[in-house]
Amino acid sequence: MHKGTSQSKATLWIVLLGSLAALGASLSFAISVGAISVPIETVWGIFAQKTGLWPVEPTWSKGRTAIVWEIRFPRALLAVMVGAGLAIVGATLQAVTRNPLADPHLLGISSGGAFGAILALLHTGLFLGLLTVPVMAFLGALVATLAVLAVSKWAGATSADRLVLTGVAISFVIMACANILIFLGDPKAHHTVVFWMLGGLGLAQWSYLIYPLAILVPCALWLWMQASQLNAMTIGDETASSLGIRVARFRLTVFVVGALITGVMVAFSGMIGFVGLMVPHIVRLIVGGNYARLVPISAVFGGIFLLWADIVARTIMAPEDIPVGIVTGLVGGLSFVVLLRRP
Q1: Three-state DSSP class for 155?
Q2: Are 333 and 274 in contact (CB under 8 A)?
Q3: From CA 38, how far away is CA 44, in angstroms rounded?
Q4: What's the CA gap between 32 and 51, in Å, rounded?
Q5: Do 48 and 58 form a contact (C-beta atoms < 8 A)?
Q6: What spatial distance separates the first Cα and last Cα of the chain, rounded to whole Å?
Q7: What is the pTM of this model?
Q8: Residue 203 and residue 216: Cα distance in Å, rounded?
C-alpha cells in the first residue's frame, strides 16, 4: 500500500511538473506570436529588463517592448488566470452536482455578467472609466448567483439536479432581459456588445490583473482544501452525510465560491464557454478522479488550453482578432458531443 501511494505521488509530481513546463512554454509562445512576431529570447529579455531580475542589454526597439510588455504579457497572464479559474469551477461543480456535463455557465453566472456588461456598454456609459464594464459585469454575476440561491431556497431545490435546473432557469430569464437591453440600446454599439459576449481578452492590462488574481488564489486554495469532501460528494449524498458532511450547506458553499470565481473571470474576459466542461474530463483521464490532484492539475491545464485558444484567435485571421469564445465554443462543442456518447 505504501509503495502504491509513493508511486501515485511520484506520478502526480511528474504530471504537475510536466504541465507547469508546458504552461511556461505555452506562455512564451503566446507572447511571441501575433501580427508582429517577436523572438522568444527577446520576450524574456524584455521581461528581465522590466523586472530587473538579471542584467540585460536591450537590442530591440521601444515598439517591440510596448507590444510585449504592455499588450501581450498581461493578455497571456489573464488567459492563464481565466482558464485556471473556469477549469477549477467546472471540476468542483461536477463533483457537487454529480453531473459530468456541469460547467460554470450552468449557474447562470455568465448570463448575469453579460447583463451587467450590456447595461454598461449600451445604457449607463463608462462612469468608472475602463473599469466600468468589469465592475458592472461582476455585479451582474453576483446578482445572478444570489438569485439562484434565493430561488433554490424558496423552492426547496437544494438537491444536486434541482440546483442545476434552477441555474439554467435563471440563466434563461437573465439572457431574455439582456436581449431586451440590446434591443433598446444604440445599434451602433451592438458590435462591441457582441464581441464581449463571445469572449475576449482585450481588456487585459497590468493594473487590472490584481483583481482576478486576488479572487482566484484564495478561492482556488479553499476548493483544493475541500478535496476529501468533494471526493465524498462524487459518491453520493448519503455517503457524504455518513462522513459528517452537511451536504446541502457544503454544496451551496461550493456554488457561491464557484460563482465568485466565474463572475470575476467573466467580468474581465467576457463569456468564454466550455473550458470548465472539457478540461476536468481531460485531466481525469491522466490523474484520476481524486480532487487533491484534479484541482491543481485542472488549473494548469485550463491555463494552457485558454492560452492556445487565444493564440488561434489572434493568428488565424491576423491581424484581426476573433473572439476567443468562438474557438473554445468550437472545441468545447465537439467535446460535448463526445461526452454525450459516453455511458
Answers
A1: coil
A2: yes
A3: 10
A4: 18
A5: no
A6: 31
A7: 0.88
A8: 18
φ, ψ of residue 62 to 5 degrees: the values are -65, -30
261-285 pLDDT, tens digit per residue, is: 888 888 888 888 889 888 998 899 8
Of 169, 80, 165, 137, the residue nearest 259 (C-alpha): 137
Instruction: Kindly state the cell numbers that stand for 329.
Output: 465554443
Q: Which three cell numbers stand for residue 48?
A: 528581465
All 3 cell numbers of residue 261?
470565481
Do the beta carbons of residue 303 and residue 80 sit within 8 Å?
Answer: yes
With beta carbons less than 8 A apart as the criterion, state whether 268 and 249 touch.
Answer: no
Type of residue numbered 8: S
Say whether 98 sits in a helix, a strand or coil.
coil
Residue with grid cell 479559474, as numbered in its chain:
85
How far is 274 from 105, CA to CA, in rounded Å? 8
C-beta atoms surrounding 239 within 10 Å: 14
Which cell numbers hold the place of 147? 438569485
Residue 181, CA distances (Å) to 6, 141, 170, 189 in order: 57, 16, 17, 12
**CB atoms near residue 126 (< 10 Å):** 12
Q: pLDDT by residue (tens digit) across 195-249?
A: 778 888 887 889 889 989 999 999 999 999 999 999 998 888 788 888 888 888 8
Q: HSE (CB half, 13 Å, CA atoms) of 255? A: 30
Contact 324, 310 (CB under 8 A): yes
Question: Residue 274's closest CA among 328, 340, 323?
Answer: 328
Cell 522590466 found at: 50
E strand or H helix at 256, and its extent? helix 247-269
Helix, strand, coil percentages for the chain (3-state, nearest 5): 80, 0, 20
